[in-house]
Design goal:
By secondary structure, the chain is an alpha/beta fold. Helices cover 27% and strands 13% of the residues. Helix 6 links the parallel strand 7 and strand 8. The protein is globular.
């Protein structure tokens, strides 16, 4: 499949920015838009093609900014629309595109639509913009059914007049009714607003939940909440076929612009349904979460790659490859913990986090080794690669954040068998400057106090009014962050940061420059090994610039792997003539 310049996103490297934790330009302890602008030079040197900004809109932060009060504004704590325009200009000057998060399944309970719904009362058009229902029981004192929120507790919240509204996530995030024309018009205006400001694309939050059917059966007969990704056509909440009409209407808006805008769906659906969201007639791309869900087993990654490639072929798009994001524990930690098969992805690491990381040993050397190997395995694949901020620094999950400092609603609402500590461990502000930090006596997981420097996270930005005293970061940074600070890694030739820079440069030079997204698997015959050993190896070939072939080889097995004849471009670990366990290599043939 060949890619033209208009479809830049089909093989882009996209860097996810969690704005509140990227960089703080005014010293209030919260990352901001000016901080992102200050980091554009760093991101350009990294070699990315686009940034994806997690929500920066006005919010009460009930869910890390995904409870949006105003979709066409910037949270005053993070800056202004003028600041956003400056960010767009700075990014585009470095040929970096900008993707913003859009959150269409729910609003904040402080959104003007929801406030109007409360004021107008039952039966009003304003209330029909959301999903209100009467309660059960003699006086309506019970919720309409037993559905549970994804964040724990009931998925229904009662208001003063006695009705209940649906919230699949936090109570502060009431679900919208996408059958209401006002809802559709509001988001069409929002899409055009950001496109007109120069935004190049959108990441669609909970894209598989917008269309709901709560009328085919009485709610009290639907007492058990259906699961995401079930692929069941009778599912009243998730992945309903009606959602695709919404995205076809969005596509018509995207195509009004030159070049056409694109979107990528966060859709936790079965692999055979992913292609619908990624269709050129709809959003254009969908996240392949099977890759991020995989444990450190060759079979898991091979299956995820095959499913991603099949989805791309079926949809006429390209796949996406993701190792970490703001919703999952960092992969350097996942790979450094014991690898245990479980029915639920990340179950083992989430149980470990629940106990502050004290139950099992996190082998950080092994986690780093595997993370380096995973980078090479990922970045030669055809399609888009998404980097989550800090993974290029080799950051691990911060497992021992004190419970009274947590911000994620998952930690506040989940309980009993579904308990979770939440996602704050991957959202801790980034470390930029090691010299900003005094050397601690021990690397025991301790945190800096309020008077301790923030590893350069709160860094001066030219022309920004700053607080009289720099506040502590909104989430505590562990003292071991000093080993992962940008300035320290920048000075180490073999660091994780410099490996990312090298790999992204080679990817652009040899792979994306061809526009060719084909892939050929290598097996036992091509590698000259037994069929049994080949099960522990992931190897594939891609057409490269100059008529050559790039081969990516990752060895999961205990047996060393003799390399084929060719030029070794880069390896995740120093080579001693053969490829050892948990290591990857890129080779150029022909």
């Amino acid at each position: 499949m060949a890619i033209n310049a208009i479809e830049w996103w089909k093989q882009a490297v996209v860097y996810q920015v969690y704005p509140r934790s990227f960089r703080d330009a005014d010293g209030d302890g919260l990352g901001d838009i000016r901080g992102v602008t200050a980091g554009i030079d760093y991101l350009a040197e990294l070699g990315i093609d686009a940034i994806w900004l997690s929500p920066f809109y006005p919010s009460e932060l009930a869910d890390g900014g995904y409870d949006v009060i105003d979709y066409r504004a910037v949270d005053p704590r993070l800056g202004t629309l003028d600041d956003f325009d400056e960010l767009i200009a700075a990014a585009h000057a470095h040929y970096i595109r900008v993707i913003v998060d859009i959150v269409p399944n729910h609003t904040s309970n402080k959104h003007r639509f929801f406030q109007a719904a409360l004021a107008a009362g039952p039966g009003s058009s304003e209330r029909e913009r959301y999903i209100f229902r009467p309660g059960r029981g003699e006086h309506g004192e019970l919720p309409p059914n037993g559905w549970m929120s994804c964040f724990g507790g009931s998925a229904w919240e009662r208001v003063e007049d006695g009705e209940w509204y649906l919230h699949l996530f936090a109570a502060e995030q009431p679900d919208l009714n996408w059958q209401h024309p006002d809802v559709r018009e509001e988001f069409e205006r929002t899409l055009r607003f950001w496109c007109d400001r120069g935004v190049d694309g959108f990441r669609v939050d909970v894209a598989h939940a917008l269309a709901k059917d709560l009328t085919s059966r009485p709610l009290d007969e639907l007492d058990q909440a259906p699961k995401q990704g079930s692929g069941n056509a009778d599912n009243p909440l998730w992945d309903r076929p009606e959602v695709h009409e919404i995205y076809r209407s969005w596509r018509r808006i995207f195509n009004e612009y030159e070049p056409p805008r694109f979107a990528v769906a966060e859709a936790w659906v079965t692999p055979d349904h992913q292609r619908l969201y990624a269709s050129p007639d709809e959003l254009g791309q969908v996240f392949n979460f099977e890759f991020a869900k995989a444990d450190w087993y060759a079979a898991d990654f091979r299956r995820a790659i095959e499913e991603g490639l099949a989805c791309a072929e079926d949809s006429g798009s390209t796949s996406t490859w993701v190792l970490s994001n703001h919703d999952v524990p960092r992969h350097a930690t996942r790979y450094g913990l014991p690898q245990v098969k479980a029915k639920v992805h990340h179950q083992f690491v989430n149980d470990w986090l629940l106990r502050d990381g004290a139950t099992y040993t996190e082998d950080r050397a092994l986690g780093t080794k595997r993370a380096r190997a995973a980078l090479l395995m990922e970045m030669a694949l055809p399609g888009s690669a998404y980097i989550y901020q800090g993974e290029e620094l080799g950051l691990f999950e911060v497992a021992n954040i004190p419970w009274d400092r947590l911000e994620d609603p998952q930690a506040r609402r989940t309980c009993h068998g579904d308990a979770l500590k939440g996602r704050d461990g991957c959202r801790v502000p980034l470390p930029w400057v090691a010299s900003d930090m005094p050397a601690p006596a021990a690397w025991d997981g301790s945190f800096g106090d309020g008077d301790t420097a923030s590893f350069g996270f709160s860094a001066p930005a030219t022309g920004v009014a700053r607080a009289d005293k720099t506040a502590a970061p909104h989430l505590p940074q562990p003292l071991w962050f000093v080993e992962h600070a940008v300035d320290r890694l920048d000075a180490e030739p073999g660091s994780m940061l410099n490996l990312y820079r090298r790999i992204l440069a080679l990817r652009h030079e040899l792979l994306t420059s061809t526009g060719d997204t084909s892939l050929t698997w290598w097996g036992a015959d091509e590698l000259g090994i037994s069929a049994e050993q080949a099960l522990e190896v992931i190897a594939y070939a891609r057409p490269a610039a100059g008529g050559k072939t790039l081969v990516s080889i990752t060895n999961f097995g205990a047996h060393e792997l003799a390399l084929p004849d060719g030029e070794v471009l880069v390896s995740s670990e120093p080579l001693t003539g053969a490829l050892g366990q948990d290591a990857s290599v890129w080779m150029l043939l022909g």
